[in-house]
């Protein structure tokens, strides 16, 4: 079982997160931001990851610190859980439709962080989550886990659908990238290391 527990405590947030990459999609999530919890639940369910997460953040300020720091902690947990990357497929991608929205996500667990993002929102928030925080969340995940992450919106006008398709596409791509293939000896790299 590839499981990692990460804790982070600052003046802005207090987070405890446990991620199981080989789970069944079970989650227990409480960040204090309803829409964000909904997105993370979709991530676990569609990626078949198990996730336990509690976050007490300075929501009296806004949602920024909570979402950004959860991204950092999730990224660290992904990096720890995949371990030495032996026999890891490494790459994953998904083009995911959700009603009017169509989002592409591609991942390389290369050990080199890079983030490209192109999604367009017409509202400043969905529920109690600022739409600009979708980008900041995935930036944090990408850099904390040292993954190459591309997210592109190909279609869509409904802000809820665009955000949800993004989280679900990421889940499906990460599920692919974190699979183990016994045909791969060592790590999948011409360099011999990741």
Low-confidence stretches: none
Find the structural class using helix and strand composition: alpha+beta
Radius of gyration of CA atoms, rounded to a whole number: 16 Å
- Fraction of residues in H or I helices: 25-40%
Count the helices. How many?
A: 4
Shape: globular
The overall pLDDT, averaged over residues, is 96
> Strand count, sense and closure of the main sheet?
4 strands, mixed
Q: What is the H/E string?
A: EEEHEHEEEEEHEH
Strand content: 25-35%
Q: In which order are the strands of the major sheet placed?
A: 1-2-4-3
The strand count comes to 10
What is the CA-CA span between the terminal residues? 21 Å
Would you kindly provide a written description of the structure presented here, covering whatever features stand out?
- A hairpin with a 2-residue loop joins strand 8 and strand 9 (129-130).
- By secondary structure, the protein is of the alpha+beta class.
- The model has no long low-confidence stretch (mean pLDDT 96).
- The strands form three sheets. Strands 1-2-4-3 form a four-stranded mixed beta sheet, covered by helices on one side. Strands 5-6-10-7 form a four-stranded mixed beta sheet.
- The two termini are 21 Å apart.
- The longest helix is centred in the middle third of the chain and has 19 residues, at 64-82.
- Helix 1 runs parallel beside helix 4 (159-177) and helix 2 (64-82) runs parallel beside helix 3.
- The radius of gyration is 16 Å and the shape is globular.
- It is built from four helices and ten strands, in the order βββαβαβββββαβα.
